[in-house]
Amino acid sequence: MTKPAAHYPALVSETRTHVPTACAAFWLNRAPQTLRSWACFENGPIRPIRVQGRLAWPVDGILRLLKMECA
């Protein structure tokens, strides 16, 4: 079961610099566990920062990644 798109703001209108894993996974069309795996093994296309044990994914990194996939 997927979460509705209305739950997440449009990527271009995002004002935060970093977003939680679920939000980043939605925009990247990946499972949240995939992003957690990228963070754990440090082998993904973008790297999160860790804030008190939680992952925060950079919005500019997500935008760069999506632009590379569209090109």
Topology (SSEs and partners):
Layout: E1 18-19, H1 21-28, H2 32-41, E2 49-51, E3 54-58, H3 59-70
Antiparallel strand pairs: 1-3, 2-3
Organism: Massilia hydrophila
Protein name: DNA-binding protein
Structure report:
This is DNA-binding protein. It comes from Massilia hydrophila. With 71 residues, the protein is an alpha+beta fold. The protein is built from three helices and three strands; from the N terminus they run βααββα. The chain has helices at 21-28, 32-41, 59-70; strands spanning 18-19, 49-51, 54-58. Strands 1-3-2 form a three-stranded antiparallel β-sheet. Strand 2 (49-51) and strand 3 (54-58) form a beta hairpin. Helix 1 (21-28) crosses helix 2 (32-41). The chain is globular and about 25 Å long.
